[in-house]
Amino acid sequence: MWCWFLSFLDAIPSADQIRITTSLKSQRGSVWTKTKSIFEYWEVEVTFRVTGRGRIGADGLAIWFTEEQGLEGPVFGAADKWNGVGIFFDSFDNDGKKNNPGVIVVGNNGKLLYDHQNDGSTQALASCQRDFRNKPYPVRVKITYYQKTLTVLINNGFTPDKDDYEFCAKVEDMVLPSQGYFGISAATGGLADDHDVLSFLTFQLTEPGKEVPTPEAEIPQKDKEKYQEEFEHFQQELDKKKEEFQKEHPDVQGQPAEDLFETVSDRELRQIFEGQNRIHLEIKQLNRQLDMILDEQRRYVSAVTDEIAKRGAGFPSQQGQVSQQEIETVVKTQEEVIRQVNEIRNSMADTLRLISGAQHPGSAAGVYETTQHFNDIKEHLHVVKRDIEHLVQRNMPSSEKSKCPDLPPFPSCLSTMHFFIFVVVQTVLFIGYIMYRSQQEAAAKKFF
């Protein structure tokens, strides 16, 4: 359990939420933990709302993990030159590239100034474009830091499903302070939004086999006694209200609760809907894994493209020459990954069609048909899982595997001057051929 304190700016606490900033111009506010976290690896789940009357909002909201508390400053209401990481939900498009609202992950070692004019694009470690303003349900964000890898998942708030997360960003080889403060901040500018935080849950992640510290070692004895006293007080209040309700409604006691029982058809429908819900969750999980794999493949392709461009520009090689066979092996591996991803997507499409066929069960034949559909769906899901596991194992980094070799410099087979001369000669020959054909056709017409 974390103890929060409010900064002296524009944040307003209430019983069920904290309004970091109101929809007024030039407002700033932040909330930070009182004590440092001692987690090496952690996960946070944040629920918030960003609402405003305008089509465009400003400035945005930020979730922090920093070595020191950034109570006040120009970066979404918090201090600049932080040591840690900030996940920014930027509402306003400062650079005019039409890439906002967006989610940006920016790390800092305590020496960098945030680039406001470019919306932090020059400093972003990862980003995704998501609209989080004026949603029917609260927006949920899950941020995981485990084994030097930061992953951001987001629930856009279109449905009431709390687990409907989508992959947003991933940063590998990220070093954060071993201890730090969690915080939330927000700011408004010429345009304004209400930034409300509904919940902030923090979880400690441990490696398998490591001993988890006991709760007594984490919570001071004084705070523990205080929490125990509050719990006993709430328990007494609850018992008192129960007694008052029983005195005011004596007829309710002893009556059977008919709503606790269900008919056979209701139970069958409930089981069908629960099965479909589990299938949907499995498909969403597979979609997230596919997005992560495709994002990793895009980074690989981008790195290879940059290396080819450098070699074409005449940069010297730093890791020696490689053979054409090794290059072809890398290309074939990429093609195999793309083929397997397409197969997985086709299998998921077949699964969705099977689900749509099981939406309206009726009578005994309908129940039998639904059972057959679920068996087919299970088989498809097993195939998809096996493909995913095989694909992940192929792309898992291993210390035993050698890194992909650098491409050799391409030989200059044809200079620019030779190419230009070749084009000119071809053009002259083509024009001469056209003129010769025209003369032959004109001479032939004279005989008719």
Sum this structure up briefly.
Helix content is 40%, strand content 21%. It is of the alpha+beta class and 448 residues long. It has 2 domains: 4-207, Jelly Rolls (Sandwich), CATH 2.60.120; 266-395, Four Helix Bundle (Hemerythrin (Met), subunit A).
Protein model, in words:
The strands form two sheets. The chain has a seven-stranded antiparallel sheet with strand order 1-4-13-6-7-8-9, with no helix packed on it. It has two domains: 4-207, Jelly Rolls; 266-395, Four Helix Bundle (Hemerythrin (Met), subunit A). Helix 3 packs antiparallel against helix 4 (324-357). The chain has helices at residues 215-218, 221-248, 264-312, 324-357, 363-395, 416-445, and strands spanning 4-6, 12-13, 18-21, 28-33, 41-51, 60-66, 83-90, 102-109, 124-128, 139-146, 149-155, 166-172, 181-187, 194-205. With 448 residues, it is α+β, with helices and mostly antiparallel strands.
Spatially, the strands of the biggest sheet line up as 1-4-13-6-7-8-9
Give the end-to-end Cα distance, rounded to a whole number of Å: 104 Å
Low-confidence stretches: 316-320, 361-365
Contiguous helical run count: 6
The dominant shape is extended
What is the share of helical residues?
25-40%
Order of helices and strands: EEEEEEEEEEEEEEHHHHHH
GO cellular component, one term: COPII-coated ER to Golgi transport vesicle
InterPro entries: ConA-like_dom_sf (IPR013320), Intracellular_Lectin-GPT (IPR051136), Lectin_leg (IPR005052)
Protein name: Lectin, mannose binding 1
Subcellular location: Endoplasmic reticulum-Golgi intermediate compartment membrane
